[in-house]
Amino acid sequence: MNLATAAAVSLAESAMSAAAKNENHEVAVFPSFVSLRAVYERTRGSAVAVGAQDVFWKESGAYTGEVSPAMLADAGCKYCIVGHSERRGRFGVADDSPAGFFSDTNEAVNRKISALVFAGIAPILCVGETKAERESERTIEVIDKQILECLAGIESDELVIAYEPVWAIGTGEVCDAAEAERMCGYIHSRTAFGNLRVLYGGSVKADNAAELFSMPSIDGGLVGGASLKANEFTKIIEAK
Questions:
Q1: Within 89-201, where are the H helices?
Q2: Residue 204 carries which DSSP code?
Q3: CA–CA distance from 129 to each of 67, 182, 222, 240 (Å)?
C-alpha cells in the first residue's frame, strides 16, 4: 500500500528505462489496484509488464471491495501475486488491531490461482516459513504443505513461485544466498510445471541482488521495499 498514481507511473518509467538497457531481463511492476490502469497505459509496448498484488476468485457478485481476474485482465495485468505472507496474516497483529489478519488460507490461494489460470493471468505464488517455524526445523514441512495445497488440481505453463522467508522480510535478518539457493532448488524439485520459475523474495537489495541472481536455482527476485526507490530498483534490474 504505497505510492499514489503519479508516483507509481514515475517509478514504472524508471523501470522502463532500466529494462530497455537489459533486454534479457524480464521486469514487472505491481502497483495498487487504483494505479493499475494508469501504469499499464504508460508501460504498454515496453519491456515492463504489469501485475496485481492480489485477486478474488469470483468473477462478479456481492463481494464488496474485491477485484476479479477479469477486472485485472481488463486493466492490463499479465501477473498477479497470491498468497503473500502479508495477505496470509503471517506477520500477526499490526498495531494491536485486527488489520494484520487477512483471510488467505492455502485453500483460498488455490481458488485464486485456479481463477487466474482460467483468465490467462500468470500467478506468482508466495511460499515461506516464519522464524518460529524455521527455528523448530519445520521449514520443509511448511513449504511442502503450501505447495501441495495451493497448487492442488492446477495445470499451468506460466506459474511462478516466490520463496519469501517471512523472517527475512523487513526484519534486518538476511537469508544468505546459499540458503536461498537451497530452498529455491528444493521448490524446483517439488514441482513439475512447464516453464516454472522460482524467485527469491526477502530483503532483496541492490547490494545482494547480483549474488542472489547468480545462483542456478534462483530465476529472479520478488522485490519489496527496495522497489519503491527508483535508483535502488534500477540497480536490481541491472544486476546480473
A1: 106-119, 131-135, 139-150, 177-189
A2: -
A3: 27, 14, 16, 27
Quote the CA–CA distance of 73 and 40 in Å, as a whole number. Answer: 11
Question: Could you tell me what percent of the chain has a pLDDT over 70?
Answer: 94
* pTM (predicted TM-score): 0.93
pLDDT for 102 beyond 90: no
> Residue written as cell 505472507?
85
Q: Does 93 score more than 70 pLDDT?
A: no
- Cell 513449504 locates to 143
CA end-to-end distance (rounded Å), the chain: 29
DSSP states of 30-77 as a string? ---GGGHHHHHHHHTTSSEEEEES---SSSSSS-TT---HHHHHHTT-
Asked whether 53 and 30 are in contact (CB, 8 A), the reply is yes
Active-site residue set: 84, 164
Q: Which three cell numbers stand for residue 47?
A: 519491456
Listed in sequence order, the residues at least 6 apart from 159 whose beta carbon sits closer than 8 Å to its beta carbon are 122, 123, 125, 151, 191, 193, 195, 196, 197
Are the beta carbons of 126 and 82 closer than 8 angstroms? Answer: yes
Contact 31, 67 (CB under 8 A): no
